[in-house]
Amino acid sequence: MSFSIRYYLPKTFLLRSFLIIFIPVLWMFVASGTIFLQRHWKYVAKSLCENIAQNVRFLCKLEEQKVLDWCLVQKMGQEFFHIKLEKAPQFDIKFFHQNQKDSQSVFLYEALKNLFPLGVRIDRTHSVISAWIKTDKNFYVFYTPTQRLGYRTLRLCGIWASISSTLFLIIAIVMMRQQIRPLRRLSEWFRHITPDHIPELPRIEGAREIRRIGVGLRRMVQHLQYEFEQRHQFLLDLSHDLRTPLARIKLQCQFLPPSKDVTALQEDIDHMISMVHQYLEFTIDKESNEEIVNFQDILFALKQKNLYLPSPEIQWNLGKKFSYKIKGNSADLQRCVQNLLDNAVKYACNHIDVCLFPQESKIILCIQDDGPGIPQSIKTKIFNPFFKGDKSRTAKTIGSTGLGLAIAERIVKKHKGELCVLFTDCIEKNPALSGAHIHMILPLNF
88-130, pLDDT tens digit by residue? Predict the structure, then answer.
């Protein structure tokens, strides 16, 4: 399985832009923090620890050499160096053996150890550092605030970096939203465009490139609207110009003496009229009113309509004790099923099986025939307009227009369903016929 980063990228332009900004900011934050910790902070921390050690050593020498009184030494340490120095009782040498945990304590331990090699011990709390040291004459303990080791500076640096990065990202998001807003308006406008209605284009704002895109889209939609209107008018004129002479020829054929040639001519005229009607029906797709209909009632009506077909025999299995209610247009659904039946009638030899059954939240209508069947290689092409298959599957009577299944698929998709060709049994208890298996799947309305 190949790895592709595009599957893990955000789907919207705003989130992708945010990711483009967030990654460099995060990298800069980590890189600057690493440089600060590895170089600047360590250098400053070591200098502060060495300064504290020098101050302690200076105070101890003042007391041991009796330069100042002990009370004055303690007072000087607190006022000038923020160090509280006290004499401690004698400790065992094991008391000075310890493992330093944090880096600041390590720096202070190393600085004191260089000046007081006889023994050093450090204990640290959140606010105070306690250190025991041993000189040639005495044992001392001193206390100093933890902030002297740069703790506050480090915390303020982290807080400042976090706040500045957050503010930068917020400003970047606000600016990106301002730039993306015109694209969203264009997207919403484009989404509401239909062949019968083109909403008014919103005011084009934003960068120069976005304004050019908006102007180009407006020109393209206006051109498509003009082409659609021209095609619609052409089809109306064509239907009027063709149906009138065809109807006149059909009427005149009825007055001719009966013969095989006259019968063939009448069949050709009926076929041409059917072609005109189906082509207009396929091209002019009008909006239809939707309501809650019982799909079973539609099939019962079609059963009565096709009851007296001389051949082939149609076996209806419409199910019982179930509510087959769906949301849609009854006339469109009846036309869709009739087109599927007409296709099966054309190619069936003796039998057609129409089966309706529920499956979870859907209903499935399976229409089978015992004709030559549909090859696996063309099962995805039979719903294309004007596709008629190969010579092995040829209608017994009049030639097909190649639009019946295309119209049926359009109606099914309009009802949020699916029309497909299967090569398996639709219901296990019913034996499958040898010909085509067309499945019409529609969602139920609960």
Answer: 888 777 776 666 666 678 888 889 999 998 888 888 888 888 9
Segment 203-222, tens digit of pLDDT: 777 777 777 877 887 788 77
The model's pLDDT over 139-198, given as tens digits with 9 standing for 90+, comes to 999 999 887 776 555 566 667 777 877 887 788 778 777 777 887 887 787 777 776 677
Question: Is the model's pLDDT at 379 over the cut of 90?
Answer: no
What are the tens digits of pLDDT across the range 407-435?
888 888 888 888 888 755 555 445 567 78
Dist CA 266 CA 256 (whole Å): 11
**Residues 226 and 100 grouped into a single domain:** no
DSSP readout, 265-313?
Answer: HHHHHHHHHHHHHHHHHHH-------EEEEHHHHHHHHHHHTTT-SSSE
Question: Do 302 and 432 fall within a single domain?
Answer: yes
Are 295 and 439 in the same domain? yes
Angle separating helix axes 42-64 and 103-115, nearest 10 degrees: 40
Tell me if 201 is assigned to some domain: no
pTM (predicted TM-score)? 0.48
The Cβ of residue 262 has, within 10 Å, a number of other Cβ atoms equal to 14
Helix or strand (DSSP H, E) at 365: strand 362-369
The whole-angstrom separation of Cα 288 and Cα 372 is 36
The answer to whether residues 309 and 275 belong to one domain is no
Which of 406, 438, 441, 442 lies closest to 423 in space, CA to CA? 438
Torsion angle defined by CA atoms of residues 90, 91, 93 and 94, in that order, rounded to the nearest 10 degrees? 180
Which stretch of DSSP H or E encloses residue 246? helix 208-253
- How far is 148 from 169, CA to CA, in rounded Å? 33
Are both 296 and 439 inside the same structural domain?
A: yes
Question: With b meaning 16 or more CB within 10 Å and e meaning fewer, what string describes 349-373?
Answer: eebbbbbbbeeeeebbbbbbbbbbb
Query: Using omega within 30 degrees of 0 as the cis cutoff, is the peptide bond preceding 24 cis?
Result: no
